[in-house]
Amino acid sequence: MPALLVTGGAGYVGSHTVMAMLEQPDFEYEIVVVDNLSNAYRAEGDKKPVALLRIEEMTGKTIQFYEVDIRDKQGLNEVFGKHDVHCVVHFAALKAVGESVEKPLEYCQANITGTCTLFEVMRDHRVYNLIYSSSCTVYGEPERLPLDEEHPTGRGISSPYGRTKYFCEEIMKDLCASDPKWKIISLRYFNPVGAHPSGRIGEDPNGIPNNLMPFIAQVAVGRLPELKVFGTDYPTIDGTGVRDYIHVVDLADGHVKALQLFHRNEFSGFCPINLGTGTGYSVYQVVAAFEAASGRRVAAARAPRRAGDLAANWAAPAAAARLLAWRAARSLRDMCADAWRWQSANPDGYRG
Ligand code: NAD
Ligand code: WQD
Hints:
Mean pLDDT: 97
CATH architecture: 3-Layer(aba) Sandwich
Bound molecules: nicotinamide-adenine-dinucleotide, UDP-4-deoxy-4-formamido-beta-L-arabinopyranose
Radius of gyration: 19 Å
Largest sheet: 7 strands, parallel
Distance between the termini: 36 Å
């Protein structure tokens, strides 16, 4: 059976993508997850991380799991040797923007060296189909909105994390120029939020969340006292930062559609595609939507701007519609309702 190798498949976006793939009735690949568990939880005595066990339970299908670091060439070689890998979906990375300022070398190691090691192993095993987890952060400070794929990348990126995503895109362009066999789809995510509607898998940040939606969810459930609104003087609808929040299940469906693109012969080379809704919401709008969806009050206090934050960004999602026949279908209300279902059923995440 052909295999789909998913690096970082035990994490937030990876687990939802594995779920979306396995929910396809005619899905023709075996799923092989490689994850070093640096940001995913496996209970003592279990063979697989909790997220993957829950997916197996919900779908009745089996996931192959290997605790391997993507920088471990030998470990990756063994996995590629055991499975008939046709395509790689590469999620594994460190992703905390603030931490990347403190530990730039760790971010280069994991995100750039790790990615290059994976590509070497792919090349050695003649696997050339790749879906890469990129980010709207590659656009840096927007010159125009909405952000389309032709917008310049690499200028004014405010964090080492963001630059690792940009550098990896540049490496992938060079790779595609070196050998026409490579087919690389770089999915530039906007702000993934929410959870699977079952409430059984979701985002499980370590410690205090850096991102807005998990922070709000933890205020609503009583784990954190109040949200600090970073900046109320931006030139936006109500002074707070505006972002293109996208439901993680829509994002996962985008990967299912991207996988189908490999079967079309007309595509080769490096292909960047935005995954966003095309609509921006402010921090206050998200807080109001979360309160409405959860029936809980979310205390919020004004705070200074966070260093490196943009005033606003949102996607031009036309390329995804044209190339993948994909469009985000879920509303901000759905994102909040599903984030709340996950948070209230799993107040301590997967460790609960
Ligand atoms: P996550 O931390 O939940 O998942 C990443 C997974 O990769 C984790 O399970 C972690 O244990 C694993 N991992 C990390 N380093 C590894 C290594 N060296 N070897 C093997 N496994 C390793 O993060 P996520 O939110 O699911 O993000 C997935 C991808 O999407 C990342 O590449 C991230 O940069 C990108 N992305 C995320 C967002 C977001 O806001 N969540 C936005 C844009 C892009
Ligand atoms: C959203 C809005 C904050 C927390 C980050 C990365 C980006 C991408 C997605 C990976 C902003 C405000 C937040 C809080 C707040 N990740 N906020 N109080 O900064 O758009 O993007 O995640 O590629 O690269 O930079 O997302 O969720 O942190 O912030 O007021 O406690 O919420 O200022 O306006 P961001 P976020």
